[in-house]
Amino acid sequence: MAHVRVPDGPQDKGPRDQGSRRPAGIIDPVDWREAIADFLPSLRAFAFSLSRNSADADDLVQETLTKAWAHRTRFEPGSNLRAWLFTILRNSWYTGAAKRRREIPDEEGRYAAGLTAEASQEWTAELTSLQAALNALPPEHREAIVMVGAAGLSYQEAADIAGCAVGTIKSRVNRARHRLALLLDMEAPVEPIQNVIEDDS
Q1: Which of 15-19, 145-149, 186-190 has the lowest mean pLDDT?
Q2: Is residue 62 within 8 Å of residue 132, measured between CB atoms?
Q3: What is the C-alpha separation between 116 and 108, in angstroms, rounded?
Q4: Which of 94, 87, 65 is CA-nearest to residue 163?
Q5: Of these four, 54, 85, 137, 185, which has the most CB atoms within 10 Å of its CB?
């Protein structure tokens, strides 16, 4: 994984100088680094699931951390920092949609495939197959399964981040799992979800 610089805001000491005002957010740079360190791998995995490009994923994580630090006073201590960071990342990605539409279209991954080296080891080939299968999923399904399956977010957390109902997230994850099983020629997972919304796109 490429190094992602964590902004420490050494010049910004505004919140510390507020005297008797109530403290908010994560003010100390050391506390900030410690708080987000464990979330970096899952943030990058989520960023990659959206961008499907390593360099873009690193840029997206960097942008997320920069925005989070700049707005750290909005974070309420004791609340869900991981979900807050995921929400910033997701919003940053979709905010840049207009810019991305002007770039090279590669919905089926053909352009990206031409830039990758042929797998030289079995595990690399399997990882490439998984990546290709994930890329074949509808964006909302890929997003859901990465949040729940890879990042370990709860259905409720993922639903809050995506701005939809819990049942919708469950449906997307379920459909993504079955689609991945088909694409990877694996046995389809046993249906673990009840009351799944059937008309989800």
Answers
A1: 15-19
A2: no
A3: 14
A4: 87
A5: 85
Quickly list DSSP for 57-76.
Answer: HHHHHHHHHHHHHHTGGGS-
Report residue 133's pLDDT band, with 50, 70 and 90 as the boundaries.
confident
- Report how far residue 80's alpha carbon sits from residue 157's, in angstroms, rounded to the nearest whole number: 9
Q: Is the dihedral of CA 23, 28, 33, 38 positive or negative?
A: negative
SS3 of residue 127 by DSSP: helix
Cα distance between residue 57 and residue 48, in whole Å? 5
Torsion of the alpha carbons at 74, 77, 83 and 84, rounded to the nearest 10: 10
To the question of pTM greater than 0.70 for the whole model, the response is: no
Q: Could you give the CA distance from residue 191 to residue 174 in angstroms, rounded to a whole number?
A: 8
Confidence class for position 6, pLDDT limits 50, 70, 90? low
Q: How far is 201 from 109, CA to CA, in rounded Å?
A: 21
Interior/surface letters 173-201, b for 16+ CB within 10 angstroms, e for the rest:
bbbbbebbeebeeeeeeeeeeeebbeebe
Cα dist. 145→25, 89, 96, 134, 180 in Å?
29, 16, 22, 9, 10
Instruction: Tell me the per-residue pLDDT of 21-55, one tens digit each, with 9 for 90 and over.
Output: 444 566 677 778 888 888 999 999 999 988 888 89
